[in-house]
Design goal:
By secondary structure, this protein is of the alpha/beta class. The chain has 13 helices and 9 strands. Strand 6, helix 11 and strand 7 form a beta-alpha-beta unit. The relative contact order is 0.15. The structure holds guanosine-5'-triphosphate. One of its GO terms (molecular function) is signal recognition particle binding.
Length: about 400
């Protein structure tokens, strides 16, 4: 009799211990996202990021973050280890990058502003001068309509006000350029969504800087303390996924890619959104391929990527990347893309290498969509939000 009581007691104890264990585990799952950041600052060198196991979803891989990270000083660790340089970089905050990149914009674009100011400050502004002004604006890729509009308005203002004072002329030009670029556009990126990750598709022809832009944008978002996941849906160029994974791992952001060459980009994009949802990231950034040799093919492929992603989640932003140095050609590309997907914002890259800042006006006019970001160099933090006032200031800097 006593033995059976003892056995019953032992069985009850085991069941109780099991129950307490289960409660503890499920309690951990319910820990709010923000208190268990996806990429903890302190990890053991061999820790895996959540859900980062290779091949977990069939052909889709989630690239590991860099293995070694120095533990924080508060963690008990040998001194030498605590001082080791962290493998994950800290991206530059947006405010300081703006100040730094402004100088680059001034350097490449103020030729345009300076020659305009010089022309407008002449003692006599005759027909020849107005023609020269027109030419300068066209050379800056402002586009014919906007050039005519600006010249007409300036002509009128200069005649009515009769002022040749360079400061006054500069102010007029500044005002008119700001009006043309339209400060009314909402240039904020939609990178927050309610109860799910915000989904951003990045599209554009090859070579314009798409993959680089996704990488740079991930850094901007990480600097703003957002959890990000990347989707390498440019399955056309073999090295693109690797390139993207490298960008991501530098700032501790995982990348979803396919181990099958030429895999279906829509399925990689879907997997990235799926993984982002599972990991409760704030943003999913999807890089896409941009072959333009066949318009119908491109439209089919991009349309499909968007449709398939939409089975899982809304798409919050479609960013079209355009190379500022390609002028009119870029505008034609923009048109094709905007027919394929509903573009919500433009990223204008390589503005550091051209005096054709006027392309901002032409593109916005053509697509009715704002330039939201500008690329001003090949460095990892050379991407900045577009701001009309500072852009025009940089054009007209002395
Ligand atoms: N100077 C300058 N170079 C840039 C900028 N953005 C990108 N690049 C360079 O442009 C080149 C092409 O960039 P990628 O990101 O590979 O272009 P992509 O559009 O992804 O090309 P595909 O993957 O072939 O479709 C790289 O050498 C980049 O460093 C920029 O703002 N300024």
């Amino acid at each position: 009799m006593e033995t059976s009581v003892l056995i019953t007691f032992i069985v009850l104890a085991v069941v109780l211990v099991g129950l307490v264990g289960t409660l503890l585990v499920s309690g951990r799952k319910l820990t709010p996202k923000k208190t268990r950041r996806l990429y903890p600052e302190t990890r053991d060198a061999d820790d895996q990021p959540p859900g980062a196991a290779e091949g977990e979803d069939g052909d889709t891989l989630v690239a590991d973050r860099p293995a070694a990270e120095a533990p924080e000083a508060a963690v008990e660790a040998p001194e030498a280890e605590a001082e080791a340089a962290p493998a994950v970089e800290t991206p530059e905050p947006v405010a300081s990058r703006l100040a730094r990149l402004r100088a680059r914009l001034v350097k490449s674009n103020n030729v345009f502003g300076k020659s305009l100011l010089a022309l407008l400050s002449r003692d006599e502004i005759d027909e020849d001068v107005w023609e020269e002004i027109e030419e300068t604006l066209l050379m800056a890729d402002l586009g014919t309509d906007s050039t005519m509009e600006l010249v007409d308005t300036l002509r009128e203002r200069v005649t009515v006000e009769g002022s040749k004072d360079p400061q006054r002329v500069r102010a007029m030009l500044h005002e008119e350029l700001v009006k043309l670029i339209d400060p009314e556009f909402d240039r904020r990126l939609t990178v927050t969504a309610d109860g799910r990750p915000a989904v951003v598709l990045v599209v554009g022809v090859n070579g314009v800087g798409k993959t680089t832009t996704v990488g740079k944008l991930a850094r901007v978002l990480v600097a703003e303390d957002k959890d990000v996941i990347l989707g390498a849906a440019d399955t056309f160029r073999a090295a693109a996924a690797e390139q993207l994974t490298t960008w991501g791992s530098r700032v501790g952001v995982p990348t979803v890619s396919s181990d099958v060459e030429g895999a279906d980009p829509a399925s990689v994009a879907y997997d990235a959104v799926d993984k982002g949802t599972e990991l409760e990231t704030d943003v999913v950034l999807v890089d896409t391929a941009g072959r333009l040799q066949n318009k119908a093919n491109l439209m089919d492929e991009l349309g499909k990527v968007k449709r398939v992603v939409e089975k899982k989640s809304e798409v919050d932003e479609v960013l079209l990347v355009l190379d500022a140095t390609t002028g009119q050609n870029g505008l034609n590309q923009a048109k094709v893309f905007s027919e394929a997907v509903n573009v919500t914002g433009i990223v204008l890259t390589k503005l550091d290498g051209t005096a054709r800042g006027g392309i901002v006006v032409a593109i916005q006019k053509q697509l009715g969509v704002p330039v939201k970001l500008i690329g001003l160099g090949e460095g990892p933090d050379d991407l900045a939000p577009f701001d009309t006032e500072s852009f025009v200031d940089a054009l007209l800097e002395d």
